[in-house]
Design goal:
- Helices cover 40% and strands 17% of the residues.
- It has 297 residues and is an alpha+beta fold.
- It has a domain at 100-295.
- Strand 1 (29-31) and strand 2 form a beta hairpin.
- Helix 4 packs antiparallel against helix 5 (115-131) and helix 5 (115-131) packs across helix 8 (240-254).
- It is globular and about 50 Å long.
- The relative contact order is 0.09.
Length: 297
Amino acid sequence: MYFAQPFLRVATTILIVWIFSCGITSPQTVSNGGGTSASFLLANLPSAPERCTRSAGSSAVPRADADIAGDVPYSCGALPSAMPALKPCDAANRAGTGCDGAKDLVQAKLEAMGKAGQKISRAREKVLEILGTENACSAWFREKDANPVALFRTLRFELDLHGEEFIRESRDRGPLYILRNPYVAKVMQGDGAYGTITINTKGAFFSAASQVREVNKEGGPDSIRGTRLLHVGPYDGDTLTARAVTLLHEFGHVIDLLPPDEDNVEGRSVQNTHEVLRYCRAELNSLTKRSTFSASH
């Protein structure tokens, strides 16, 4: 009997320890009053990281769909860190990011503009050709942007159907007259990638000539003074070269390579066009030669 008592005490102790350990390892549940229960333990612990899948040549790799989404790979058993927002069509990282879609949208919109869109599209192609080859013009633009052709490709185009139409003639002092041509195009200074170039449908981009109107400073009606030819720099209005130099000029503003035109005060716009010609005249003149050659054959 005395031999049995120590044995019973040991057996009782083992039974109590076993029961206690089972109660700890089982998750507790609490009722929410609606007949359903939730695991209290699981609800208060962070979820485990997803399993890693194995592939040939790698001990462990993240799931394939994470790679497609652009997530940064992380090691097995570790939670992924915060990921930076993706910019698939960022101007500085266009290669291999599916940004051809953005280019196609620009082209599709130009095609929807009819004849005006065709003229813009042809000039755009020539500018892309100039910027995409090694020459003095593209080298000048690369001083401000390492990949100007890619950035220019993102630019959008709008038409100003109600822009300035007439050449304004005014007399400041004495017999001298000041002529102000309708603006050709405009853009927001330093707009960068995906900026918009607005083109005046009545300016030299699309028109070869315009009516001259003398501004009456005394408040009376304007007087019609005939018609004058329009030009962009040395190039006649409504020509491929005039359109190409216009786009190069506006692109210079987009990337802050040229200072603002300031509404052409003191001829600033003309000065900026001359700066474009300083570097790009040879490429622009070659467009004229090619156009003349094509027309004669």
